[in-house]
Amino acid sequence: MSENEGSSGVFRFGAFEVDLSTGELRKRGLRLGLQDQPFQILAALLEHPGQVVTREELLHRLWPEGTFVDFEHSLNASIAKLRQTLGDSASNPRFVETLPRRGYRFIAPVDASNPPFPSAIDTSQVNSSAPESAPPNRRWILNPAVWVPVAVITGAVAMAFTLTISRSAPRPAFTLIRLTSDLGLTAYPAMSKNGALLAYASDRAGNGSLDIWVQQPFPGSQPIQRTFTDADEYEPAFSPDGSRIAYRSEQNGGGVYVISALSGEPQRLAARGRGPQFSPDGRNIVFWRGNFTGPPQTAGYGEPDVFIVPASGGEEKTVHTGLAETSHPVWSPGGNSLLVYGTKGRAAGYPLGEAQSAGDWWIMPGEGGAARPTRAFEAFRQEGIRIAYPESPRPTAWVGNWVYFQARKGDVLNAWRIRLSPMESQVSGPPEQLTFGTGLEIFPSAAATGEFAFASLSRSVNLWRLPADTDHARIKGPLERLTKGDEIDIDPSVSRDGKRLAFVSNRAGGDRYELWMKNTEDGRESLLVGEEPYIQYARISPSGKLVAYTSGDADYIVPVGGGVPQKLCRGCSMIWDWSPDEKLLFLTKRGETGKIYVVDRSSNSQRVLLESGDYLYQCLLSPDRQWVAFLAVKYSNFHLWAAPLSESGPHS
Predict the structure, then answer these.
(1) Which of 122, 166, 237, 603 is deepest in the core (most CB within 10 A)?
(2) How far, in Å, CA of 485 to CA of 184, rounded?
(3) Which is nearest to 34 in space by CA: 85, 76, 79?
(4) Alpha-carbon distance 606 to 611, whole Å?
(5) How do residues 404-444 score in pLDDT, each as one tens digit?
(6) Helix 55-62 to helix 71-86 angle, to the nearest 10 degrees?
(7) How confident is the model at residue 149 (pLDDT cuts 50, 70, 90)?
(8) 316: number of Cβ within 10 Å
(9) Domain 185-384+417-433: which topology?
């Protein structure tokens, strides 16, 4: 061990980076607090990845000869602290493996190429006291069965920052100020026009929902809670004088509300509205209805759309644009124009299209009228910014000659801005990246004083299961977590006996999703398919011996023990179910969202099983093979239907 001991360099593994020269551990660019002894243990393991580092070697490294201490207890405590910080488990390790009576071994792949840490805007500069873990914030139950897999999305440490822009520098120069630090989710920051107040949504009250909070934008400012319902309330926006806040609330079916910034009761302005923005004169509020960030089947045909309502309450009116769909409106600084995200037509059944040639930011008169393209998406393409659904850049603020937005370039989501003069109808110059962290740096909101705030989040999606009596719709016990870590684990599919779980995960990093298998009895996990394009819609067969999945423009089947995948059909996607004898599969074909197909594996034949003018989704076969149940989606409304296999017409 002595040859590398004390070496300097940068090591990367999973979402973590370790700089031995500075003694820093970072997770997705955010610096974590780790005491010296656990850090020294981590350094020793990283210097010898895949090799056993004995307890004796660690004892000599941590405590000089002649030190009087309970070595065994202290070493065990340091190992436990290291695992806690990494989110690792002694029983099912991903990073640090214990070899009883011998020592420890680092088992994850390690990149020791010593890449430099980002030097521009690195949020780790202000995260030295970042909490080590965060409680789960949101849970969704998926695919009800005897054991129900549950995906949990956690917002780790959420932060808002104020950045001061130096106008004399060729590139923006920033001073980062950390404003909030919460174990749960704090996001959706909004700055008042004069920069004196900051509003945001947070679940720090502990009631399980997001509330609107207000504080002054400097560290140590005492926040004031402004909403207190059990429903999520978010997307705050200040009136021009900073006296009122408009926001989205999920109570009573969802809608736009307005409340005094410091006291008073809320007033409901518009049902189902979202993304409210005050006009520069404070008289009106623009908002939109519809769906954008959900899955494509939730898109209302003919929605989303933009509306204006008086800020004091009254009759709302539609903003006519000449576009098929519009969303995310922001006012121009003078209030004469509106900037929206929109498309001329729907593409491939997605809400707001797939941001192809028809998608852009559009500018129009404030009262409505013919929309003109800003050619923003052309500039985004040239910069390498992703414009495809569901991460198409949406404007969040228009201040002076700059429009602020969030966008993904490569594997990270950051805050950006692009120049758009209120006197012009097209953007000018390339987009300008404002933050450079490796997490989610989103929801930028700017003040007229040259400052802006954004939220810095981390996200993980894990799989859980819930014991349930499905015959009587009763929960039989507590949640049990099946996967851990910072990756995104989705699309769970369980075999009939509950012993095997197939799922899709981005453990390879970034946007690369692989097909994984987990034995729910002994906890072992194995990679099934990893060297293919984006994998999704994993469906395990009833026997648990085969897994069907979608990759690229085709569907495949692979044995759970591994092997060469067999192509099922090209142009297929969204595999829904298997027949009990595993001869048939039920699926949707690409671009044909109103049809459910059945594919016969033995004859390789295909036929339409169901056809409708609505979007058909989640087709499941009954155990006796006599019926199929499915969802029909129209105008964002879901309807559950059942159809006999001997007939084509649906029965409610």
Answers:
(1) 237
(2) 17
(3) 85
(4) 14
(5) 999 988 778 899 999 998 888 899 999 999 988 777 889 99
(6) 90
(7) very low
(8) 19
(9) Neuraminidase (2.120.10)
pLDDT score recorded for residue 281: 96
CATH fold group of domain 10-106:
Arc Repressor Mutant, subunit A (1.10.10)
Q: What burial class does residue 649 get, using C-beta atoms within 10 Å of its C-beta: 0-12 exposed, 13-18 middle, 19+ buried?
A: exposed
Cα Rg of the chain, angstroms: 27
The pLDDT assigned to 552 comes to: 81
In the block, which residue shows the tokens 């099983």? 609
**Residue 645: which region, alpha, beta or left (left: phi > 0; alpha: psi -120 to 50)?**
alpha
**In this structure, which topology does domain 462-644 adopt according to CATH?**
Neuraminidase (2.120.10)
- Judged by average pLDDT, the poorest of 71-85, 153-167, 497-511 is 153-167
**Rounded to the nearest 10 degrees, how much is the dihedral formed by the CA atoms of 123, 125, 129, 130?**
20
In 3D, which of 138, 183, 128 has the Cα closest to residue 157?
183
Strand order in the sheet with 317-318: 274-278, 284-289, 305-310, 317-318
Q: What is the mean pLDDT of residues 170-193?
A: 79
Q: Which residues contact 520 (CB under 8 A, 6 or more apart)?
A: 147, 465, 482, 494, 498, 499, 500, 501
Structure tokens that stand for 239 in this block: 């009136």
Which of 617, 597, 621 lies closest to 607, judged by CA?
Answer: 597
Predicted confidence band at 652 (pLDDT cuts at 50, 70, 90)?
very low
The two tokens of residue 172 are 């923006």
Per-domain boundaries in the chain = 10-106, 185-384+417-433, 462-644
Could you give the CA distance from residue 294 to residue 352 in angstroms, rounded to a whole number? 11
pTM above 0.70, yes or no: no
Dist CA 451 CA 165 (whole Å) = 7
**Which amino acid type is present at position 559?**
P
- Predicted pLDDT of residue 431: 96
**The pLDDT value given to residue 221:** 82
The answer to whether 404 and 417 are in contact (CB under 8 A) is: yes
- Taking each helix axis from N to C end, the angle separating 55-62 and 36-47, rounded to the nearest 10 degrees, works out to 130
C-beta of residue 338 within 8 angstroms of C-beta of residue 305:
no
Three-state DSSP class for residue 583: coil
Residue identified by tokens 């409304």 is 637
Grouping H, G, I as helix, E, B as strand and the rest as coil, residue 528 is strand
Give the pLDDT confidence score for residue 207 in this predicted structure: 84
Is the model's pLDDT at 587 over the cut of 60? yes
b/e sequence 558-578, b meaning 16+ C-beta within 10 Å: bebeeeebeebbeebbbbbbb
For the four alpha carbons of 344, 345, 346 and 351, in that order, the dihedral sign comes to positive
What residues contact residue 383 under an 8 Å CB cut-off, 6+ apart? Answer: 409, 430, 431
Look up residue 488 and give its two tokens. 């995104």
CA 62, CA 75: separation in Å to the nearest integer? Answer: 9
What b/e readout covers 449-483, taking b as 16+ CB neighbours within 10 angstroms? bebbbbbbbbbbbbbbbbebeeeeeeeeeebeebb
Query: Looking at the predicted structure, is the pLDDT value of residue 145 above 50?
Result: no
Task: Number of helices (H) and strands (E) in the chain: give both, helices first.
Answer: 4, 51
- Which stretches of 207-324 are assigned E, i.e. beta strand? 211-215, 224-225, 233-238, 244-249, 255-260, 267-271, 274-278, 284-289, 305-310, 317-318
- Whether 345 shows a pLDDT value over 90: the answer reads no
Write down the pLDDT at residue 31: 72
Integer Cα distance of 183 and 108 in angstroms: 27
Amino acid identity at 405: F
- The number of beta carbons lying within 10 Å of the beta carbon of residue 373 is 19
Task: Tell me which residue of 88, 7, 3 sits closest to 43, measured CA to CA.
Answer: 7
Beta pairing partners, 505: 489, 514
Mean pLDDT value across residues 507-520: 82
